[in-house]
Amino acid sequence: MIRFQQNARPRNDTPVHLFAVGQTVRMKSRMGLVQKTAELFKIQSKLPVKDGSPQYRIRSDQETHERVTTEDNLESADNPAV
User: If you average pLDDT over residues 29-33, what whole number do you get?
Assistant: First the structure.
C-alpha cells in the first residue's frame, strides 16, 4: 500500500544551471594541483544534468576545441582567483 503525505510539497530535484550562455567562467583550482593556466572560458551551451550536476560546453579563445564540464568544476570569472 502506498501512502501519500498530506500537505506534502512537490519535490523539485532537478538542479538549476547557475551560469548563462555567453557568461565568462574559469575552472576551479583543485587542492594539491597547480592550475596550468588561469584561462577564461565562455559558456557555449547548457547540457543535461549528469550525476546531479548541470553540465556546460565551454570554450577558451586560446584553444581550437570545446570542453564539456560539470558546474561543480566552474566558478564565475567575476570572483577573485584564489
Answer: 61
